[in-house]
Amino acid sequence: MAIVTPLKTAAEQALVQQFANVKAELPGGNAVRKLREDAFAGFEAKGLPHRRLESWRYTDLRGLLRDAKPLAGQPAITPEIAERLAALKLDGIRLVLVDGAFAAELSTLEGLPEGVTVNALADALVSPREDLTRILSGPGVSADDSGLMLNTALMRDGVMVEIAEGVELETPIAIVSLVSGVEEQAVYSRSVVLFGKGAKGTVVEVSEAAGPKAAQINGALVIETGDETEVQHVRIVTRHAAESVQVQSLLATVGAQARFDSFALVCNSGTVRQQHFVRYAGEHSEVGLRGVSLLGGQEHSDVTLIVDHEVPHGTSRELFKSIIGGEGTGVFQGKVIVRPHAQKTDGGMKSNALLLNDGATMFNKPELEIFADDVVCGHGATVAQIDGEQLFYLMARGLPRPQAEALVLQAFAGEAVEFVADENLRVLIMSEVEAWLGEREAHAVVSAI
Amino acid sequence: MPAVQETIEQVKSIDVTEYKYGFVTEVEVDKPAKGLTEDTVRYISSRKNEPEWMLEWRLDAFRRWKTMTEPTWSRVHYPPIDYQDLYYYAAPKKGASPKSLDEVDPAILETYKKLGIPLREQEILAGVQPENRVAVDAVFDSVSVVTTFKKELAEAGVIFCSISEAIQEHPELVKKYLASVVPVTDNYFATLNSAVFTDGSFVYVPKGVRCPMELSTYFRINEQNTGQFERTLIIADEGAYVSYLEGCTAPKRDENQLHAAVVELIALDDAEIKYSTVQNWFPGDAEGKGGIYNFVTKRGDCRGRNSKISWTQVETGSAITWKYPSCILRGDGSRGEFYSIAVSNGMQQVDSGTKMLHLGRNTTSKIIAKGIAAGKSDSTYRGMVSAHRKAIGARNFTNCDSLLIGDQCGAHTVPYIEAKTATAVFEHEATTSKIGEDQLFYCQQRGLSEEEAVALIVNGFVKEVLQQLPMEFAVEAQKLITISLEGSVG
User: Fold this and answer.
1) Is A331 a member of any domain?
2) Over the Cα atoms of chain A, what is R_g?
3) Closest CB from A355, A357, A367 relative to B414
4) pTM of structure
5) Which domain holds residue A397?
6) Contact A268/A241 with Cβ under 8 angstroms?
7) Which residues of B touch A379 (CB under 8 A)?
8) Are residues A200 and A287 in the same domain?
9) Chain A neighbors of B413, CB-CB under 8 A
10) Residues B467, B469, B473, CA angle at the centre, nearest 5°?
11) What is the predicted ipTM?
């Protein structure tokens, strides 16, 4: 049964108008233009994702976007943005996007290691590169997602980073995406990072807001890793307005005998939908996807992932931790697909959630779709409160309850964070986690008094 | 384990991919013209001498059904069903409501004998210990042909009869409970069933009564092009206990036959219902031709405090299985259980699982699902565990394991775990793997053939569920699993 979804909401109609207005001025050659047109036609056929679509069951984007905010124009470099950048504890190469546009003047482009090239995506889109549309399209399993289609149609800028064969990055490449938050607006950006054969490195994605106004953010990161690469991806989404809504897609294609790890932290960010699409392009590769969501208030964090084992001998591990307080909602939808010839696949997926109080909600849907027999796949999902025995143990040793809780929660989140290989990043992530827990603890102490 | 020895014997004695219940019984039947209209509904109702309210209820369901569309969300594929090309009612001409077994068409009795279903009470009494007695309601195509042990059950106060009889004789109970668990418009197939259901079993166990014997219904689809729409309603009043088992077979036919049943269970305070199914409908031949479409809605309502409903199913037959026996845990302290073995081979498709809806306080549920896929079959576990905001202290444990035999089958797991209260504790684990080569090697090294070794390992894999079945049926089920996997190795 085809679900008929005419574009009927105000937001959908506004998007149609917006695309018609800007499509001529969006960057890209003929191939890219066609990609945009096709993607938008796909969006028009499907409309904004809504809860009757299985993959968007728990995040009703159509309901959340009451209107389509105006598309971000020329970025305004406000003092707050400079402040945010100065406060970031990230060393290494820093590529800054403001309201989705690449801000070369805020980025560290000098002293790039040899073999690393950086271009604004807007420039890359007009380059005659033949494999551009293939790269932009990402894994096949992402093809029918209308959230991503919108990004493809409306992406304005971002960065394109290429790491040449054999280059081993000593410091991470950080793509810092800030929204100015001076006015309500919609930001569509996409970045691409390509690792040549045997390259090693870390890509950090930071999504933050500098101002208080809510934004609609639709971001995508394409990562393609060659054979024998080792790549770590870290995403930190924080400091967004409570009313902001964002969709962050990760499109990863992993080469043979490669290792790809991703970690995502979400906290203090309104509604965040992350979708990871991972494809194995070669055999004997290992993929690890992990994350922590810290939710309070009315916050909503959705992690949806599709790991597509197309080839034999792939290994995948997923571990997602959710700590949910207030009236927050956590969603985990993981799908591991093992195609008919992908023998010897080893897949393990786990989602653990702690609900801190009544009013918090968790939806778990770990899926396996297996068409090959010689595989070992498993998944586990749990939802519970903080273990009373653990609390008792700590409180018996003299810790007040809020601190005891914080300690248990810190360890709970830490189980996923510890997979981040880079120590500085691990410390950075844990400091965000601790700050969040500290705030909660302070609140608990105040309310106890 | 002696049963394993038995399994091995069974394997030896059977031809590969043989469905032993595939024979056809030649009996004269009474059936209306093909197709489904209001007249068909009226025909069925009048054939059953139903009261006016029942006819109205059916017609209402039929009108609603016409406005609905067939669901497509499950992972099964089949050509569109032409609902106008089916017979909706088929009754053996003789003995539609027999006074005694002597009035039943001997051909039908012969059928049940071949199937190994005991209908003659005296025979059972002669050879079996009293505590192992089973009362049987035998349903042949659209009607119940005989119900055994009625008298003895009546002495205990238990009502066990066909649903048609219950509509005549216990209308107050039927009116009160029918469709109170599965609403008429619950889903496409349930609505269709409401309009055209023909027969099925009705059980009422009064307050404080522990049903003195196992109850059982045996379903047999015999006629060609006939859909079977059975309706079962089981009510366990306060403090009552009943264990119920259903079994199903059908002849081998080239066309697909539709089986769309609705089963409703209601457990009041402190009551317990144990419902076991051994489903062995004709699965179609090796190329996927023929076989039963088993589209069934089964749901239990733990309506009372501390009530318990337990589903156990062994699914080896049907070309397509689409069923989710569920529990609504409404009463405080109620408990739901689901134990399932789904074995698929050849071109079979299984999309099955359960729903545990925690509504009351301190409700608990347990799900053990074992899927075994062989040949070119596809097996999906689809389940939901949810805790309502007020379901304080809800607890669930889910374990679903899949075993793959051969490289052309598929096993999928689609669980939904939804917690809206912080006091809920839900655990879910699932694994998929093939039979370990080291396990096979170990068995073969000790002199078992590969097929015997597989049978042994599979039996171990499903043991947890088999243990939940009443003893007589556990042995039967074990044999069935072995037979279903015939020809899947090597």
Assistant:
1) yes
2) 21
3) A367
4) 0.86
5) 387-449
6) no
7) 413, 428-430
8) yes
9) 366-368, 379
10) 115
11) 0.84
